[in-house]
């Protein structure tokens, strides 16, 4: 009996990237714009989605895997719903609502820590999609929170930056200490 492969032999397997954690300096850098969406970039988008699902997480920005380019991926589908991946290159916020929403945020680069963050409840975003075409979309609810969190990553901003300095320093210190112990 032959086993039918779901993926053509020529397609190389998806790459799961290691995710950087604080206080890695790359997470504080500004990412560069993408010139165009070609096959290599589509490959990166797909690998980022795979890495995000593997983690698991609801959003991932390229700097979190050490790639300083303006690419983000998201999926806010519930566990019992089919996947609903969203990928964006060069996402740009066009408008934010006055109305705010608060969400208990976490981040794959700051494992095991969450905190309530208040952000605009609706956001209008321009971006290049998987096919490279310019698009615009208006997001609300959890996706509005996620897209703002991920775009922040492209500018070296983390959700802990919205907390009090005391709380932020406590979290950063914890990770700095843990890394020092790991290195021993
Ligand atoms: Ni994050």
In short:
The chain has 184 residues and is α+β, with helices and mostly antiparallel strands. It has helices at 39-54, 142-154, 165-183, and strands at residues 59-61, 71-74, 86-96, 100-105, 115-120, 122-128, 134-140.
Structure description:
With 184 residues, the protein is α+β, with helices and mostly antiparallel strands. It has a single domain (25-183), classed as Alpha-Beta Complex (Peptide Deformylase). It contains 3 helices and 7 strands. It has helices at 39-54, 142-154, 165-183; strands at 59-61, 71-74, 86-96, 100-105, 115-120, 122-128, 134-140. The strands form 2 sheets. The protein has a 5-stranded antiparallel sheet with strand order 1-2-3-6-7. A two-stranded antiparallel sheet has the order 4-5. A hairpin with a 5-residue loop joins strand 6 (122-128) and strand 7 (134-140). The N and C termini lie far apart (52 Å). Nickel (II) ion (NI) is lined by residues 107-109, 149, 153.
Task: List its traits.
single chain; 184 residues; alpha+beta; Peptide Deformylase; five-stranded antiparallel β-sheet; two-stranded antiparallel sheet; 3 helices; globular; binds nickel (II) ion
Tell me the name of the CATH homologous superfamily. Answer: Peptide deformylase
Euclidean distance between termini CA atoms:
52 Å
User: Can you give the mean pLDDT?
Assistant: 93
CATH structural class:
Alpha Beta
CATH architecture: Alpha-Beta Complex
Task: Tell the overall outline.
Answer: globular
């Amino acid at each position: 009996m032959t086993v039918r492969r779901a993926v053509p032999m020529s397609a190389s397997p998806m790459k799961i990237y290691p995710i950087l954690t604080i206080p890695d300096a790359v997470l504080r850098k500004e990412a560069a714009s993408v010139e165009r969406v070609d096959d290599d970039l589509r490959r990166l988008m797909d690998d980022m989605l795979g890495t995000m699902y593997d983690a698991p997480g609801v959003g991932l920005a390229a700097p979190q895997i050490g790639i300083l380019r303006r690419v983000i991926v998201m999926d806010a589908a519930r566990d019992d719903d089919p996947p609903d991946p969203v990928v964006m290159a060069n996402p740009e916020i066009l408008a934010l609502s006055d109305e705010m929403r608060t969400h208990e945020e976490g981040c794959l680069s700051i494992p095991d820590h969450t905190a309530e963050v208040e952000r605009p409840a609706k956001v209008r975003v321009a971006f290049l999609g998987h096919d490279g075409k310019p698009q615009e979309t208006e997001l609300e609810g959890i996706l509005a929170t996620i897209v703002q969190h991920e775009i922040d990553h492209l500018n070296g901003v983390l959700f802990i930056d919205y907390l009090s300095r005391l709380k932020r320093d406590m979290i950063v210190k914890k990770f700095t200490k843990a890394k020092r112990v790991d290195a021993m």
